[in-house]
Inverse folding.
């Protein structure tokens, strides 16, 4: 039921860990399953994401999507990272079972939360970035794929 890529990123997740004195840290949770995701971003003076790490207390799909999401944002600009949706992450993983789609939202929201933290710390505005939700459980029902 899971693609090979999902299994690969689940068994061998990339960029696990934390970054000390990260430029931005974002934590989100899903109230329904209780899973939690934290993303650390290191952003250089040119606004490029030099490094990214994640930690999760979550299911296998959350691990795989976060691993892939960190791979996709590494080396990108803030704007590019902002535009990486959970759909893009799922596509990069060759899909997820329907019941696991919400798991991929944790990574997307955690990245947004980390960017928000970075923007707040540096007193800047990131075009298109809205205050992130810390709990994605409420929205889940309204998402139609
Ligand atoms: Fe909670 Fe996957 S079941 S994130």
């Amino acid at each position: 039921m899971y693609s090979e890529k999902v299994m690969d990123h689940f068994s061998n997740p990339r960029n696990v860990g934390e970054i000390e004195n990260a430029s931005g840290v974002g934590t989100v949770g899903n109230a329904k399953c209780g899973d939690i995701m934290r993303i650390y971003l290191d952003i250089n003076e040119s606004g490029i994401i030099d490094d990214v790490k994640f930690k999760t207390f979550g299911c296998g799909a959350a691990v795989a999507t976060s691993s892939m999401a960190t791979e996709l944002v590494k080396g990108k600009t803030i704007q590019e990272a902002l535009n990486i949706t959970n759909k893009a992450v799922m596509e990069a993983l060759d899909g997820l079972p329907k019941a696991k789609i919400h798991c991929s939202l944790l990574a997307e929201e955690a990245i947004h939360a980390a960017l928000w933290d970075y923007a707040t710390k540096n007193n800047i505005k990131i075009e298109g970035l809205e205050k992130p939700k810390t709990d994605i459980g409420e929205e889940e029902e309204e998402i139609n794929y």
Summary: The domain at 4-121 is CATH 3.90.1010.10 (Sufe protein. Chain: A). The longest helix spans residues 101-122. Residues 30, 33, 35, 58-59, 61-62, 100, 103, 106 surround FE2/S2 (inorganic) cluster (CB under 6 Å).
